[in-house]
Write a structure and sequence with these properties.
It contains 3 helices and 3 strands. The protein is α+β, with helices and mostly antiparallel strands. It has one domain. A 3-stranded antiparallel beta sheet has the order 1-2-3, with no helix packed on it.
């Protein structure tokens, strides 16, 4: 999983899609997911990272991550 090449992200959680002009703000968990994307981490690595860091149950976060990925796909931000 990775963002499309033209998607701009900042360390503060700002996301900009120059193709559509859409911009988004994200929370600290999303920032960690974005960082994992940039490091080409696998879905399982992202699950493990977030669950450990935020002390979240794996089953719950797995659903949340899937929902988040659906949103990123809907906004045409991922290159898959």
């Amino acid at each position: 999983m990775r963002f499309k090449k033209n998607i701009a992200t900042s360390d503060t959680g700002f996301i900009f899609n120059p193709g559509s002009g859409d911009s988004f703000n994200s929370n600290p968990i999303c920032l960690d997911i974005f960082a994992a994307f940039k490091e080409d981490k696998s879905r399982q690595e992202i699950l493990n990272l977030i669950c450990e860091k935020y002390e979240v149950e794996n089953n719950q976060f797995e659903k949340d991550l899937e929902d988040f990925l659906v949103q990123l796909r809907e906004y045409n931000l991922l290159d898959e």
